[in-house]
Amino acid sequence: MAATASPASQPVRVVLRVRPFLPSEAISAAGPCVGLLGSHPGGEVTVQLKDQYTSRNECYRLDAFFGQESRVSEIFDQEVCTVIPAIFDGINATVFAYGATGSGKTYTMQGTEDLPGLIPLAVSTVLALCTGTWCSVEISYYEVYMEKCYDLLEPKAREIMALDDKDGNLQLKGLAWVPVRSLEEFHEIYSIGVQRRKVAHTGLNDVSSRSHAVLSIRVSTDVVKGKLNLIDLAGNEDNRRTCNEGIRLQESAKINQSLFALSNVISALNKKEPRIPYRESKLTRILQDSLGGNSRAVMIACLNPVEYQEAVHTVSLAARSRHVVNHMSSASKQETPKDKVNMEVKLRAWLESKGKTKSIQRMGGLLSPNASKTPLSMSHRKQSASVRVSGRGKAMDQDGGKIKKVLFDSACRIPAENLHRVGTQDEVNTTKKVVLPSLTPCKEDKTVSSLRKALSPISSNMAPQNQQSADDSNCVFSLEPKTPMGSCNIVGKVAGVTPLDKFNAMGSSLKESLIQQYLDFLNVANKEELQKLKVCSLLLIIIWLI
């Protein structure tokens, strides 16, 4: 049961099978359109396709050739049996039959009771290898019909979803896996799925498969899991010959579309294009591991011996598939590398190579132990620990460095813990600095509900009562709100205040007055009134910028 070591990469192996003549074809056939021309060292063969009615002929090189006299069991012994032991080591494998409609694909995969096909032979071999071991065998059977996947082992047709796992591998969500312990159990389960598969009569085939069918055999050991996929593809159809109509025509279009997507994937892989169009079809998504992926693959090209044009199309695609290389990997869990990469050192080295000294300094601050313990929000709170409440200026952080411009400076600082009580007069920390008079209105709205306002009013310039100078008799500056046109005139004399200072104070108070009125309006306005504020908002922004 132990498998020999497999190479890290291996191309898709392509073999050709020519089915025998049917009774209706044997009478009129002048001979098969395909034949073996010669063999080469290493097991390769050259196949010649020749038109029976013209002088056209073409030659292709493949891996193996099985003529009309060959049996399916010979294909299994030479091609399929060799990939089965590797699945016990966690290396996945795929065997799929490709060809035109009526070329013998379903017969090759299913066979008959007397002459079993590749699927029964593969299951029998897997079960025999598991005898006397702790290995378990499970099977799933599903079809791709009209670009949708359906589980054939479920009593009711249920669509299953093709998704990618965290490692990028295809997983079919909702697919049932049934344990199998004997060949009899397998035949009982498999026969039910075969009956549920979509088949129909066409002009070229009495029992034509209308979907791609996939049987998966999963082997689980104590260490790894391996899987063998056996795929019976629906054949491409020429609707001029099949005379399909209605639903048969729709099925044929979907089948041809998926096989055309398969051809595009093979062409892209051969040209080593950066993007492989696996997602153009559900079929190519299923075959992604088998074509350029991490699975061993065997392609069996089935030919109708009397259809030259169909044979050319099939063999040309098969010959191109030989150049597709798969990279096998065991399904066993890889060990996590013990060496940890210091990304900080690598990033710093890269920045130094680019001469980004400022970025290095910023990175040093962000990656310092103190910075790692202090979130960004906390650092923002530190910068906002003290608030200024008068004139324009630049705020200084606790270390004395400039941080940013703020709208209002204050002659006094209010501790952060007292911010929520800034409206009370006795909690304002006073200083000796002279404050210019404020004319900002700050009337309380008695009609405001107990609910919190959507917009908080801008705090006006305030000065405590004990800071009033002796010459304030004509114009008293207090915490009482005043309007720009109030009884107190700004021309009142203040010692040491120039006319320019008076003008700036008036302009600042006017701005605050307009802003305060604007915010009060926003708090109580209805929807219609708010929609009419476009011009007013623009005017307010202009005043603010001035």
TrEMBL record:
Residue ranges constituting the Kinesin motor domain according to the UniProt record:
11-324
User: Pfam families, per this entry?
Assistant: Kinesin (PF00225)
Where do the record's region annotations for Disordered lie?
364-398
Extract the GO molecular function terms from the UniProt entry.
ATP binding; microtubule binding; microtubule motor activity
InterPro entries in the record: Kinesin-like_fam, Kinesin_motor_CS, Kinesin_motor_dom, Kinesin_motor_dom_sf, P-loop_NTPase
Family matches, as Gene3D superfamilies: Kinesin motor domain (3.40.850.10)
Which SMART domains does this UniProt record tie to the protein?
Answer: KISc
Keywords noted in UniProt = ATP-binding, Microtubule, Motor protein, Nucleotide-binding
GO term, biological process aspect, one = spindle elongation
Record-level GO cellular component terms:
microtubule; microtubule associated complex
Listed binding positions for ATP are 99-106
Q: Which PANTHER family match?
A: CHROMOSOME-ASSOCIATED KINESIN KIF4A-RELATED, KINESIN-LIKE PROTEIN
Family, according to the entry, reads as follows: Belongs to the TRAFAC class myosin-kinesin ATPase superfamily. Kinesin family.
Q: What protein does this entry describe?
A: Kinesin-like protein
Source species of the chain: Oryza meyeriana var. granulata
